[in-house]
Write a structure and sequence with these properties.
alpha+beta; Alpha-Beta Plaits; 3 domains; six-stranded antiparallel beta sheet; three-stranded antiparallel beta sheet; 7 helices
């Protein structure tokens, strides 16, 4: 044993262990307090997260409600526009007239050439709509004096078969809003699916179709309603690619005259023959 080394007595060891225990207890207490504080912070964060989640849910629910309201508003606007257009006919492909400012006299002469005894009292006005791209002339909107006059004239023009104006092929259609036209195009694949399945249905203007069979009548005026209708009657849904195809049989604006169109679908015509 060197002179510098001093042996520890038993009491010294006891005192050292006591000090270490006090330090350990103090450290353990500090850790426990920190864990408690951390737990309280975590609880606060959870509560705040819960409140935030509830707020997000409320905002999302409100957004969905607003989306539904906007959709309903757009549908109402489209319906109102279609009602206002209910006595209109749209003439597509009519070349430049002699008098674009006052076109009624020339249009009436054209109708008389088709053996249709049209008179000025049948009409309120006629005007071109927005110009199109390319060489195709802008459509002419022909506003009739009443819906009865419009339907009578539409039927007579339809009975004339393919129509021409100054040697140019033209088409006469119902005048419907852009919103209704988009819905009409989106419903076309579903109507085709019904037709291919041999189901009886009729087209509803300005948009939609009705399925009827053995006292059952279902109507679809939207894609969701059309999907539900097809599932109800057991017809497979059309593929996504077919839903993106435009309405080649009627094109823009509704039923056409001069191309075999009309107010009813081929499915309805097929059912009538049956």
């Amino acid at each position: 044993m060197s002179p510098e080394e001093v042996p520890l007595s038993k009491q010294d060891l006891i005192d050292f262990m006591s000090q270490m225990k006090e330090l350990f207890n103090a450290f353990l207490k500090m850790v426990q307090e920190n864990l408690k504080a951390l737990g309280e912070d975590i609880q606060v964060i959870k509560e705040q997260s819960s409140v935030t989640s509830e707020r997000i849910t409320r905002v999302e629910r409100k957004a969905d409600q607003n989306s539904v309201a906007v959709t309903q508003l757009n549908a109402s606007v489209a319906e109102l526009a279609d009602r206002q257009r209910g006595i209109n006919l749209r003439l597509v492909g009519v070349p430049k007239l002699e008098n674009e400012t006052d076109m009624m006299p020339e249009l009436i002469r054209w109708m008389k050439s088709l053996k249709i005894d049209a008179v000025p009292a049948w009409f309120e006005r006629a005007h071109r709509v927005f110009a199109r791209f390319g060489d195709r002339p802008a459509d002419i909107v022909l506003r009739c004096s009443s819906e009865a006059v419009k339907e009578e004239l539409f039927g007579k023009l339809k009975a004339r078969g393919p129509l021409a104006f100054k040697g140019k092929r033209i088409i006469v259609r119902n005048d419907i809003s852009v919103e209704s036209l988009e819905i009409k195009r989106s419903l076309l694949p579903f109507a085709n699916a019904l037709y291919q399945a041999g189901k009886r249905f009729a087209r509803v203007l300005p948009m939609g179709f009705i399925y009827f069979d053995r006292g059952v009548k279902l109507i679809a005026r939207s894609v969701e309603q059309a999907k539900k209708l097809l599932l109800t009657v057991g017809v497979p849904l059309p593929e996504q690619e077919s839903q993106e195809q435009p309405d080649s049989s009627e094109g823009e604006g509704g039923s056409q005259v001069g191309g075999g169109g009309g107010n009813e679908s081929q499915g309805s015509q097929k059912s009538k023959k049956a």
